[in-house]
């Protein structure tokens, strides 16, 4: 078979895994396009110009997974330092621990419950719903009305721009509920932060003589794809089809950057759960790299808003109207035989880095099996 030509649209984790795997296993030339002036997609990291602190340009990314294959794979491209994500929440001027654990329950209700007492107490307050159909119902069956109203309702309304009743139940299932004092935000077995950031990892994945990266290059329907044997598309699915069925709903995030001396808030992330506080959270990046020393600090207030035509899409809303449109786009995808859609934007799902990498690895393995 002659050498193959592949086009990959998007230099985030999805595109980078495909490029890395195909370049090493198939005789091919690969072109990777990205409309931005950097690789890494929304996982992009760079050192802050003024303070030298490693900043996650598009919001905090903490690697966590139970998938050993993914963990071993990602560790080939960079050194991960031990980092446990611990988050605080402010509600009505008081500070609590998140995710909701025994400490949060005791703080909130002014008790000193044991784990068994707390579990029985929460069980007596939850609303029993056999099959929770949305975020709110799921929250009511998990934690009951008081904790839901304090920690979830206002934050979620700000974050997603709609009533939590309209959102899928799956969103809240991301967060653990614990009846002990474990305050790690995640429950994955393997976790950490890459010492030199995510962009350095993605750069290493994309380093191969047969991979050409073209930044500042936007893909659209006018782009000539005639020379390519296969295309891997990781951009928004609706953009690929020129939004012919309308735009899918996404939330975007804007960041208000601030500098200070020393330590601003004492934690990497504090969530603001009151509905009338306009930002959702404050992220202070020096706490993600406790092995580094910085006298200055830089922190970002995050604001969520509906994605306008020129904004970066972040969170797929997946409301009923979106899912109807998505089916129409997916029917179009099914008719394309040399284009593969993968990743968060191209499949319109709220995926974490480890999900994205696992799916891209599986997809690459199948493709290689067929084409090598
Ligand atoms: N959430 C909430 N209150 C919080 C933190 C999270 O209600 O203090 C809800 C909110 O709907 C959010 C979802 O849980 O979108 C998932 O939270 P996570 O921290 O995983 O969001 P991400 O870091 O991906 O923005």
UniProtKB/TrEMBL annotation:
InterPro entries according to UniProt: UDP-GALP_mutase (IPR004379), UDP-GalPyranose_mutase_C (IPR015899)
Cofactor needs: FAD
The protein's Enzyme Commission number: 5.4.99.9
Keyword check for Flavoprotein: yes
Annotated UDP-galactopyranose mutase C-terminal domain residues: 151-350
Name of the protein in question: UDP-galactopyranose mutase
Taxonomic superkingdom: Bacteria
SUPFAM superfamilies: FAD-linked reductases, C-terminal domain, Nucleotide-binding domain
GO molecular function list: UDP-galactopyranose mutase activity
Keywords, ordered alphabetically: FAD, Flavoprotein, Isomerase
Protein family (similarity comment): Belongs to the UDP-galactopyranose/dTDP-fucopyranose mutase family.
Stored PANTHER family: UDP-GALACTOPYRANOSE MUTASE (PTHR21197)
NCBIfam families (alphabetical): UDP-GALP_mutase
Catalytic EC class: isomerase
One matching Pfam family: GLF
